[in-house]
Amino acid sequence: MCGIAGILRLDGGQVDPGPIERMIGALAHRGPDGSGIHLAGSVGLGHRRLSILDTSDAGAQPMFRGRTALVHNGEIYNYLELAAELRDRGEQITTGTDTEVILAAYGVWGPDAVSRFNGMFAFALWDGERRRLLLARDRMGVKPLYLRRTPRSLAFASEPTAFIAGAGLDPGDAWIPSPHLGVVHDFLSRGWTERSSATFLDGVTSLPPAHLLVIADEGERLVRYWGPPALADDDRPSVSGGDRQQDQGMVEEFRDTFDSSVRLRLRSDVPIGTCLSGGLDSSSIVTTAAELQADEPDRAHEQVPRLGFHARFPAHGIDESAYAELVARKAGIRLVHTTPNGVPLLRSVIPVLRAQGEPYGSPSIDAQYAVMAAAHGERVKVLLDGQGADELLGGYDHYLGARTAGLLLAAHPLDAAREFRAQVRRGPFSAGSAMWAALQAGLSRDAIETVRSLSGGRYGIRCAGPLSGETAMVETQREPGTFLASRLWHALSTRGLPTLLRYEDRNSMAFGIEARVPFLDVRLVELAVRLPDRLRIDQGVTKAILRRAMGGRLPQAVADRRDKLGFAAPQLAWLTAGRAEVADLVRNGQIAKRGWVTPAEVDRVLAEGLTGGRRTDHLWRLFILEAWLRMLWPDVPGVGGRSTWEAGLAGIQHQIQPA
C-alpha cells in the first residue's frame, strides 16, 4: 500500500518535477516509509512507500527492469506463485516484493499480465522501449487511481486532493479547483457518490475498476480486462436430490475459496491486525485466520492477527462488544476498544474530513476512522476487514425485499408468500415492513423518481439554482441473471460498495495502514455471483451460505445473529448536541450563498433533521458538505458562520494531520 502520482506530457514536452513533488508530498500519509521520483523526458513517476513485503531498500520505488519503470499501490497476493512460474520461464526475481513480480510479468505477458494478478492494486508502468504508459486498477476497485487532463498532459494520483497541490501540470495549465455540480447535486438530493467516474472535484475522474488505460504515441485505449462475470439464474427457493447435493458442494467450494482468500491476505513481512465488529463478516475472517494458523503455523512471509479493533458507543446503545469478545476469545486475540467522541461536532469531524478529502455520508465513517487510529496506536500496519460481504451475499435487510420481489416478478407467487412469511417469522421485519421492502425493491426507476418528486423533500434535499438539473450519475445496464443477483451485482459494482471502499482506503491510509478485504478475492466474487438465490437469502435468513460454511467455526451466538450494525455511530445524538454550530454553519453558508439550496430549504432541513431517520441523514449531508466547502475554499466572501468554523479549527491546527 502506497501513494502514487505522475505526469505524462502528451505533447512530448519535458515534465516539470515540481508538480510531482507537490503531489507526492500531499500523499505522504499513504507512504511514511520512503519516497522516490523518476523523470524521463515526457514522463515522471512519483511514489510514497508503505513497506509491507520485503521492507528492505530493495523494495523502493519507482522500481526498474531494463527500460521499464513502475510505481505501484496495493498488493498482488499471489506474487509467490507468479514468481515461481516466472522463474520456471527463466526470469530472475531478486527481491521479495510483489512489485518486481509485476515488472517481470509485464516483460513476459505484456499488458495481459494484469489478468493474472489476484490482489488489490493501482499501478503506473512506463515502458521506455515502446514509449507507452499503462495505468491499471484492480477488478473490484479496492485501490483508487484518479486522473486529470490538460490539452498537453495527463496526470494521475492516488487521491483527488493531490491534484490541488500539483496544480500547474504544464505551462498552459490554468486549472482552478472547483466543486463538480453534478456530484454535489447527487450527494445532497440522494446521498449518492461514486455513481460514475466523476469526483467532487470538477476535472478529476477515477479510472474505472477492472480497466487498463494504455497511452502510446499512436493513441490511447481504455480496455476492460475483467467482468462482468456470469450471474446466477436459479431463483428456486428449495431443491431436492442431486440439486441439493450440488448446493452442498457449492457450500464446501465457498468455504475452501474463502479459506484460500484469507490465507493469501495473511502474507506480510510486518504484523497484521483485524477489524472485529462482532458481526458475521469480520468474525468469519478472524476465526478462519486462527484456524488456518493452527493447522499450519510458521509459514514463510505470513502473519496472523494478534489484535482486533472494535468501535462501540455503549452510552447510546450501540455496542456489539459482547459478540466481539466471544470471537476474540475463540481466536486467541486481544480486543482493543475505541469510542470516538462527536462533541464538539465540528472539531471531531474535521480530521476525518481531511482524511477523506471529500464529503462523506454519515458519522459511521468517523467510527471507522477511530478504529484505524487505534490500530495505528498499536503500531499495526495491516488490517483485515469484512468489506464487500454484504453486497456479495445479500447481507442488508433490504435485500430480503429484493428476494421477495424477484420471486413475484418471476411469477412464483406461492414461493414469494412463503419467503414473506419466513421474513416476518425469522427475520427482522414486521408484516408491514416486509411488504414495504418488497414494494420498494420492485419499483422501476421511473416510479421511484415520481415518488421522490412528489415527496416534498422527504427522500432528499431539494436543490436549486446552479444544481437544478445537474447529475453525475451514469445509467448502467442491468446484467442478466435473477432479480436478486442483478441487484447485488449493481451494489457491488455501482451503487454501494465503491463508496465504502473509498471511505476505507482514505481512512486506513490516513494512518499508513493497509486494509485487506478477503471477501473481494476475485475467485470468491466469481463464485458468489453465480450462487443460487437460496444460498444467499433463504427463508428470511441473509448470507445463508456464509452461515453454513462457517458452521463450527463461529460462536453460535454470532452465527445466529440477525441484527446488523457495522460501523454504526450515534448520528442523531451528535447532531443534536451540535445543533447550534451546525445551524450557524449552514445558514447563510457557502451552500446557500452559491444558490445551491434555498434558505427556506436549509431551514426545513434544520427543522426536520433532529427527528431521526432519513431526515437526519439529510442534515448530516448538508453539514458535512458545508464543512468540506469551508475546508477547501475558506475565503468565499460574505459567508456566515465563520466564527464557528474557526472555533472548530481551534486546538487541532498543530496536531499531526493524517491528510
Q: Quick gist of this model?
A:
It is built from 26 helices and 19 strands. With 659 residues, the chain is α+β, with helices and mostly antiparallel strands. Among the domains are: 223 residues, Glutamine Phosphoribosylpyrophosphate, subunit 1, domain 1 (4-Layer Sandwich); 218 residues, 3-Layer(aba) Sandwich (Rossmann fold), CATH 3.40.50.
Can you describe this structure?
By secondary structure, this protein is α+β, with helices and mostly antiparallel strands. Helices cover 41% and strands 15% of the residues. The protein has 26 helices and 19 strands. Strand 2 and strand 3 form a beta hairpin. Helix 10 runs parallel beside helix 17, helix 12 runs antiparallel to helix 13 and helix 12 crosses helix 14.
Distance linking N and C termini: 16 Å
| Overall pLDDT metric | 92
The oligomeric state is single chain
- How much helical structure, as a percent, in the residues? 40-55%
The CATH topology of the domain at 2-224 is given as: Glutamine Phosphoribosylpyrophosphate, subunit 1, domain 1
Second CATH tier, the architecture of the domain at 2-224: 4-Layer Sandwich
Q: Find the structural class using helix and strand composition.
A: alpha+beta
The CATH superfamily label of the domain at 2-224 reads Aminohydrolase, N-terminal nucleophile (Ntn) domain
CATH class of the domain at 2-224: Alpha Beta
Uncertain spans: 653-659
Shape: globular
The total of helices stands at 26
User: What can be said about the biggest beta sheet?
Assistant: 6 strands, antiparallel
Sheet with most strands: strand arrangement: 2-3-1-9-8-10
Number of strands: 19
Instruction: Please give the radius of gyration in angstroms.
Output: 25 Å
